Amino acid sequence: xxxxxxxxxxxxxxxxxxxxxxxxxxxxxxxxxxxxxxxxxxxxxxxxxxxxxxxxxxxxxxxxxxxxxxxxxxxxxxxxxxxxxxxxxxxxxxxxxxxxxxxxxxxxxxxxxxxxxxxxxxxxxxxxxxxxxxxxxxxxxxxxxxxxxxxxxxxxxxxxxxxxxxxx
Length: 168
Known about the structure:
Helix content is 34%, strand content 25%. It is built from five helices and ten strands, in the order H-E-H-E-E-H-E-H-E-E-E-E-E-H-E. The longest helix is centred in the N-terminal third of the chain and has 19 residues, at 2-20. One of its GO terms (molecular function) is cysteine-type peptidase activity.
């Protein structure tokens, strides 16, 4: 009887492990965007700015944490992912590298609220934020957490890489 229970337990163990594992996260690959539900109307710049300022108030002061995606800590691409998902119903790719391939490339002079701005902060490191207005962008700074910064700041001006517009 004990041998039977041992064999039965061992044969069921893989099923129990799989059943108790968290479901795999749905991810988007390089440059692919998933739209969930509501339509994103980026032409209504007033509404887009209001949504971005609302998200800034929600996330303001949240510390930077590589790979983080909650109020205890968030990284730059996690912030853009969360803001786009909540406010615009758009699931961006999760990493800065893949976000930098999403949407359409645009000139810096063509920036509108909601556009993604990218920076090369080191030889292989990348950073992303969301353009709000007046050369300000929302991002998760490694040193100060979630904040608004200006593209006119000498540091960001020097590190600016490119911008992309994600819309449907």
